[in-house]
Design goal:
The complex is a heterodimer of chains A (531) and B (203). Chain A is mainly α. Chain A has helices at 9-42, 47-82, 89-111, 133-162, 171-178, 181-192, 204-238, 250-285, 292-306, 322-352, 361-383, 386-392, 396-426, 435-461, 477-505, 507-512, 519-530. Chain B is of the alpha+beta class and 203 residues long. Classes of the chains: A mainly alpha (531), B alpha+beta (203).
Amino acid sequence: MLQVNNINPLQRVALRFAVVSLLFYGLCILEGMLMRAHQIKFDLFEADHYFAIMGAHPIVGIFGSSFMLVFGAFYFLVPTLMKKTIYSQRLAELTWILMTIGVGIVWLSGFAFRYAALYTNYWPLPVSKEFSPFALGTFAIGNIIIMAGVFIFCYNLFATIFHQRDEKNPMGPMLISALGIDGFINLYRRLTRKGTEKEPIMPLPIVAIFRGSIDTVLDAVVLGGMSVIFLIHAVYSFIGTPLGYHWFDALLYKNIYWWGLDLIADGLVLIYIAGTWYLLATIISGKPLFMQNIARAALIVELVVSWNVWGHHLLSDQSQPNLMKIVSGEMVTAFELVTMGIAVFITLFTIWQARPIKMTPPLKFLLGGILGFSLGVPAGIIQADLGMNRILHNTQWVIGAHAHMQLLVGLGMTLYAALYTLFPMLTNDVKLKSNRLTNFHFWAHLIGGIGMSVAMGFAGMDGMLRRTIYPGDTTFQPQMIAAAFFGSLMILAYLAMMYNIISSIGIRGLIEIFIRLPKKLKGAAETAIQV
Amino acid sequence: MIDSSNVLSLMKVVYAIYVTIVITLIGRFGIGITRQKKEAAKIGPFQKWVFYGWIGLLVFTGVGIHILTFNKIPWVKWDLNRHKLRADQEFNIAISDYKFQLPEKKLVIKEGQTVRFNLESMDYTYGFGLFRKDGSLVFQMQVVPGSKNDLVWKFDRSDNYTIRSTEYSGPKGGNLFVKNAVVIASEGVFAQLKNRLETKSEI
């Protein structure tokens, strides 16, 4: 059982992030299955209710669950790896509180006010008469609070990396190393045989975290900025003088919005993921990372790539210039395959060097994560083609074979690998109760995630659109039944994991991560648990 | 001529094979790393060249797919050169308040003709897609308000297609479809249909 008195503040804050993240994940998969049931033709909801769920679903999943788990892990890992103190414990606490409140408010905007412009928020739908000013204002406030949490996380993270409290270091070389430029310098020295290669100052995972967080800031600037505009519109509508919405060009808006939004998918996720794989590979194998300089250099190349790939979201927009479609939409996007492929090879080869190696839960989940991205990234490259996009854009292929494959299998399993690695570190060696449940979690999530994404992918190739309901039409029912079956496996996987974790740390331990319980309750709670 | 249904059928086979291969490879890797190695792993020039070869393969695949589709899928060239292409027929379609405003009740096209669709949105971002009877997609494009949204397509086989908005435009957008609104007809049938439509419109 978890003895909360013995854990330090850094462990406690990371655990808080993890608990909130897992609860939001539960909500997210529940929403997913409700929508799935509706698609099978159970016809559970009115259209506005269905799309309100669909609007909340990615916010809960991405910011409430994925970002929360990533931020918690990084708040623990960055000071630990750098052997430094965290810049501000208070700001770390403020981060999860703000993000939890923000996600809750966004969810409420859908649940209570039926706000449903979805995460794309294509102009002018959000500010139109389709949604009440209450709905728009609530969504905007929630989103602004989430982005405030994101900013605070990045500020605290950057300050932790560069602060000079524990040891004085020159700033210039630290920044060069944090950006991965020393990897390039070492490669240059090796190729030209001039000078000697130097050991980089920053550990490679820190380079990935720092680099990914630059994209996180930019993404928050765009999403937060748009939310401020939404809020201004909501206020003017509320006081009875709605603003005209033709001053913002819909295509320009789409470009700006996708530039920011795509930094989540193609920027920070892939970069954070690469960093996490490298860290896990070195921990699991006990070997130095294969081709470390290339890995560092690839992270800075990814900076160029992630800032220029948004064009693949606009391949079906006929006014978008052809040059942008070809350069940004096709060619730069193709380099996502290269940077992700480099990370896959380096991680697998590093592990391969250490064989024979025990198949532990973190290793299993790491391989599952690599499998997810190996299936999901090429699916994205296929749709980022002028010819294929014409017949795949906005179909279930995009959201199934590409997005859900990457998010549920690729990102999800990588995060679980990190969770199972960090669990003993965060709980002072609390052992998970059941290996069988961990194994069940692995196989049910893997089979469920791949099965559901592939079923959606086939529905997409058969012409089923995303963000669309087909009342009274059973054309795509077989694919949706298959997706629901595999989705149910993921629910079971989640329940198995939660039961395993909660029974390992105890209900009292779980509650005491957040609030201190009175001592009297301790005896009663323990008796209840024993019973 | 290659049709989108041909491309999608081939894609299903390729995707199924790809998924099977990747799962098998990662599975084999997972088994392989738990087994005793025959000799100590060393990082020599061979391993490095395998790595550089892998990067080369990724670049080749990433860029090659676009070169392949440019040369094999006809609508890529239609799309990139559509401002130069002369269309046999042209349809101007507006979308407003979740309704398609079609120029005629049925858009009748003669088999083998090249058609330009000009779409205009009066309010939100919509989509414009043609779907076969089995639900599969012929093509789609975005319809963005304030922008020129045109698409050129050549129809080479008789069929009936449903028009549907392919972009989410709010909860009411789900009803934005017109069943069998596009009719591709052989020359003889085309003349008859045109006559019938013209008679109806005169009445």
